[in-house]
Amino acid sequence: MRVDAKVEGPRQSMSWLHTWASLILGWLLYAIFLTGTLSFFQSEITAWMKPEIHQSVPSDSQVQQTQVALNYLQKNYPDAGSWSIQLPNSRQTTTELNIRKKGEDLQARRGGERITLDSATGQVIEARDTRGGGFLYRFHFELYGFDRIWARWIVGLATMLMFVAIISGIITHKKIFKDFFTFRSGKGQRSWLDAHNATAVFALPFHIMITFSGLLLLMFMFMPWGINQVYKDRQEFFQEMRGGAVQQNNSRNRNVENRSVSANTSQARGITEQRSRGERGKQHEQEAGYPAPLTNLTPLIIAAQAQWKENPIASIQILAPNTSNATIELRALYAKSVVERGVYPILKFDGVTGKDINETVQTKNASIPMGIYNVVTVLHEARGLDLTFRWLLFFSGVIGTLMIATGLILWCVKRAPQQQKQGYKSFGYRFVEVMNIAAVIGLPIACASYFYANRFIPFEIETRLNWEIRAFFIAWLATLIYAAIRPHRQAWLELLAFASVAFALLPIVNFTTGGQAFWNSIANDQWMIASFDLMTWVLAILFFLSFYKVKKHKGLPVKKSRNAPSNKEISA
Amino acid sequence: MIFFLLVWSLSSLAFIALASAMSKHQKQMYGQELTAQQTRLASILGWTLLLISLIICVISGPLSSMLSFWIGILTFSALFVGALLTYYSLKVKFVACFCAGMSFVTSVILLI
């Protein structure tokens, strides 16, 4: 789009589109990418933010872990409608229980009483009230303080612009293959462009996957008309879409019903004289079953471990425990594959005899569109993926975040000579400069203050959970104000130094405020806590190196330099 | 982790070979341009190694998961080779030997 109306090729027009589509919501995209990347480890962040649970050091044996949970449940909830035991794993250090009363909907996603147990001692742990990693996760697609639907539309629009930026960026990039491995450091604008290109090209499949799946995850909100035409209730559509999962649940329900009937038939022979009690009582007994001891779970766990090998048991659900209707379902931690959304290896046993009651359910192959939807959305959410895969996605997210950051800075670097020539900074340029600082370094500082608030806000304060979130936004706003009132280079330097110190001190704050010290968490194999501490040090080092680079950068004299000076040079 | 190291080292080796087939990186790494025959050999070696790493991935688990895993690993092997060429281009031969050694050791561990 040239003002002089000269003809431009597709590459030039795409360059214009790339620049402006990226900038307009670039800061929001950066925030979505950064918080989204952290969300790959939201369980670990939540674990770190609940230092009370750090005391739980699970035994290596899943048999032992299950026994601890069962002892607690038998003692305190022997007559429950169902028990769900989520065993500790590489991302969770405690045992999480969900207990539902008789008559409660056992298939409902929410509900039941939740209890956190020390996996070794069986002691109940009351952790502090915090949103933990869940806040960052929710923020990355629902923002905060907005109406949920509006927020999702805004995030959706940003995602669409990201998609436009990716496609136009590919077209604009002149030499994707020729410059594939090229990074020319210390050359001002050229280096920023190389860094932007390298982070874009190396992780291009990730960028496409995460952006496209982001749109797919929101598509039922963007384009509801098809569903509304065919289905009266949206839930009906979602149930049909999740065909496999519904099928499994139905078969499980049917199974419980069948077993209930057969158990009652055998019992009925001996209790014919009690028929006079009335239909209501009989029906109640049929549903509830008869008291019967729960089978020993050890052989079932050993059988599951032998079958699943490196895929550990994630959870054990016991329906109608201590009755003749009891069934036990073991679920594996990792999903079968990424093309099947939410399908995990499952084993079912009779809760009284321990007999294998698995049904061979033929899962039909997903259609190609459904398969694509499943693969990209499962990868986006890292559902049921192992730790190596999760780290790959996390670091790809880091590269994506750096791509956006370098792109935002490049906008300024490219326009710096013009600004210098005119002798003053125009409002638009200064606005982008300030916003860049507030986003690129302000958001990590906001995250750090969220973690500090988690440890320093007293328990007694009501709604301390909200104060943690307020600390996040207050810190973020403070960096924006700071960036606006300080000279450009100074603002970068001071905030980088501040971020470096803030992140470096977090592991120390952790163990001085009740958390597990990193040397203990490493010794105890509690990597979900140790990796958080170690990652904050990695970030501190990165911020320090950035600080050092900016500090050292003197800026070349304009006459001698053939390359455009960087934004830091301008303000120097 | 061992599996990751195997695929990563193989694909890094593949990318080093592919970079060796590019004239501007040849000067960086070897101080001179390679002959046309050597260039073609490097190119064939690079693509073959990439294909081997893909085959190893695909036969090790569900196609959809392992294909995604392979693509994910390529990002980091390419990033590694890119950084290597920028900052330690003269040490490429040593790193290539290291990657080959790592591929050998990890594959032996996995085979045992």
In short:
The complex is a heterodimer of chains A (about 575) and B (about 110). Chain A is mainly alpha-helical.
Protein architecture, described:
The complex is a heterodimer of chains A (572) and B (112). With 572 residues, chain A is mainly alpha-helical. Helices cover 60% and strands 6% of the residues of chain A. Chain A has helices at 10-24, 26-39, 42-48, 62-76, 133-142, 148-172, 189-202, 204-217, 219-222, 225-230, 234-241, 243-268, 279-288, 298-308, 368-381, 387-422, 427-440, 442-456, 464-485, 488-512, 518-523, 527-552, 567-571, and strands at 82-86, 95-100, 113-117, 313-319, 327-332, 346-350. In chain A, strands 3-2-1-4-5-6 form a 6-stranded antiparallel beta sheet. In chain A, helix 2 (26-39) packs across helix 6 (148-172), helix 12 (243-268) packs across helix 13 (279-288) and helix 19 packs antiparallel against helix 20 (488-512). Mean pLDDT of chain A is 85; it is low at 244-282 and 559-572. Chain B has 112 residues and is mainly alpha-helical. Chain B has one domain (2-111). Chain B contains 5 helices and no strands. Chain B has helices at residues 2-20, 23-30, 36-58, 63-87, 92-111. In chain B, helix 1 runs antiparallel to helix 3, helix 1 (2-20) packs across helix 4 (63-87) and helix 3 (36-58) packs antiparallel against helix 4. Chain B is elongated and about 45 Å long. Classes of the chains: A mainly alpha (572), B mainly alpha (112). Chains A and B meet through helix 15 and helix 16 of A and helix 1 and helix 4 of B.
